[in-house]
Design a protein that fits this description.
Number of strands of chain A: 9
Helix content of chain A: 25-40%
Structural class of chain A: alpha/beta
Shape of chain A: globular
Number of helices of chain A: 6
Strand order of the largest sheet of chain A: 5-6-7-3-8-9
Order of helices and strands of chain A: EEEHEEHHHEHEHEE
Radius of gyration of chain B: 17 Å
Oligomer: heterodimer
Chain lengths: ~200, ~220
């Protein structure tokens, strides 16, 4: 079964403000780019797809648990990248060897056993992105994936997005930059005023 | 993967983080030892040697240590929104509750061991029924985490959680506190029947709040 996720009539209200209103959305294999101004609700949209934003109305479905890589790494700072990834790999019942492969791919082999709290912001973000390879995630939700990364790491992200889409994964990238992504996207969405429309 | 295995994974992850950053355990240990010592001084050495007083001092200290340990454990989860990664997983919410409760019980067992030994030495207590005492201690340690973890989870996104968790947890924990205190005091005094009776009540509390947590957390944790 191909990875997919959907929102139907989804409304998200945070702090008495409707961030998303009556959103209908289907996520399918390939790259989906989500655009919108700061505060438009891009992050909330990704969190709603991931099941992390409570829906005041509407429903959410997903063929599997999506992985959201956001501004914050969603990893435990006290643990090393290896320990963090090993937890998720074990959760999904995958072989532990996948952790080392993912860490090497994201240039973290030498830092694999250093606690996250002793890594730079960019290194922590690479560890978070390495989850997507370690867990073979079918649905990847990336919120401003290029922020805090140097040029080399940014290239790694671009190549990873290409690779994941070729592998028929559903990749959603929310960003207000990187227009070059639009050419590779199967759909480009615009978030504004609580609505999500084709750009 | 079974629900038990998922809970054990979360517990193992939590204990690994606690090993690397033992500030929660150290704070709970320091707090427990200090509280037992100060409380003993406050009530006087003669009074503090009475089984029911010694047991009450011990369990009050352990109750606050449980709140301290749970609060620190969830603060660690909030640092980089690490909790989100678990909540987003299928079955993640109940595993989070059960795993955190198991890990907290593990940490509390260490605190109970140190606090218990300190009480025995400091107050020069006689233990009439050591096995019954061990049973009451183990079941008391198991009865606290489900309530404390549940309340901490429910108050997690509130700014005033440091204040709210004790306010929410303490009234609910009064029955556990009474049962653990009476079960421990009975074991110290040599009343096997009473000790086992109170221990049975602790098992019931653990089961009730365990099931309650597994029911509430998946729908309430955001």
């Amino acid at each position: 079964m191909e990875p997919s996720a959907a929102l139907r009539g989804a409304t998200v209200v945070l702090d008495d403000r409707a961030i998303l209103r009556n959103v209908d959305l289907d996520i399918a294999p390939g790259l989906t780019v989500v655009r919108g101004a700061n505060g438009a609700g891009k992050t909330t949209l990704l969190r709603a797809i991931a099941g992390l934003a409570p829906l005041a109305r509407g429903t959410r479905t997903a063929s599997e648990s999506p992985i959201l890589v956001s501004h914050r790494t969603a990893l435990l700072r006290a643990l090393t990248p290896r320990e963090n990834l090993a937890f998720f790999v074990a959760w999904r019942g995958l072989p532990p060897a996948r952790v080392d492969g993912a860490l090497v791919r994201w240039g973290l082999a030498a830092l694999a056993d250093r606690p996250l709290e002793r890594l730079s912001a960019g290194e922590r973000r690479r560890a978070a992105l390495a989850r997507l390879d370690a867990e073979d995630a079918g649905i990847a939700l990336l919120d401003e994936p290029f922020s805090e990364l140097d040029l080399d790491a940014g290239t790694l992200v671009r190549l990873a997005i290409e690779r994941w889409t070729l592998e028929r994964r559903a990749v959603v990238v929310a960003t207000h930059g990187h227009p070059e992504l639009d050419a590779r996207a199967v759909r480009v969405l615009q978030v504004a005023g609580g609505s999500v429309t084709p750009a | 993967m079974s629900a038990l295995r998922r809970a054990l994974l979360v517990a193992r992850r939590d204990l690994a983080a606690e090993r690397r950053q033992p500030d929660g355990l150290v704070a709970a240990l320091t707090f427990t030892v200090t509280l037992i010592f100060v409380e003993s001084l406050a009530v006087g050495p003669g009074e503090a040697r009475r089984p029911v007083i010694a047991a009450a001092l011990f369990w009050i200290a352990l109750l606050f240590a449980a709140i301290l340990g749970a609060t620190r454990s969830f603060e660690r989860e909030l640092e980089d929104d690490a909790i989100d990664a678990i909540v987003a997983l299928e079955g993640g919410r109940d595993a989070l509750f059960a795993g955190k409760a198991l890990a907290l019980a593990g940490s509390l067992a260490v605190v109970a061991l140190v606090g218990g030994l300190l009480s025995l030495v400091l107050l020069d207590l006689d233990v009439a029924l050591p096995l019954h005492l061990a049973l009451a201690l183990a079941l008391g340690v198991a009865a606290l985490p489900p309530v404390v973890v549940l309340d901490t989870l429910l108050a997690l996104r509130l700014r005033a959680r440091a204040l709210l968790v004790p306010i929410l947890a303490l009234p609910v924990l009064v029955p556990q506190l009474i049962a653990a205190t009476q079960g421990t005091a009975a074991a110290l005094a040599g009343d096997a029947g009473a000790s086992l009776g109170w221990s049975g009540l602790l098992v019931a509390f653990t089961l009730v709040y365990g099931v309650l947590g597994l029911t509430i957390v998946p729908v309430a944790a955001e």
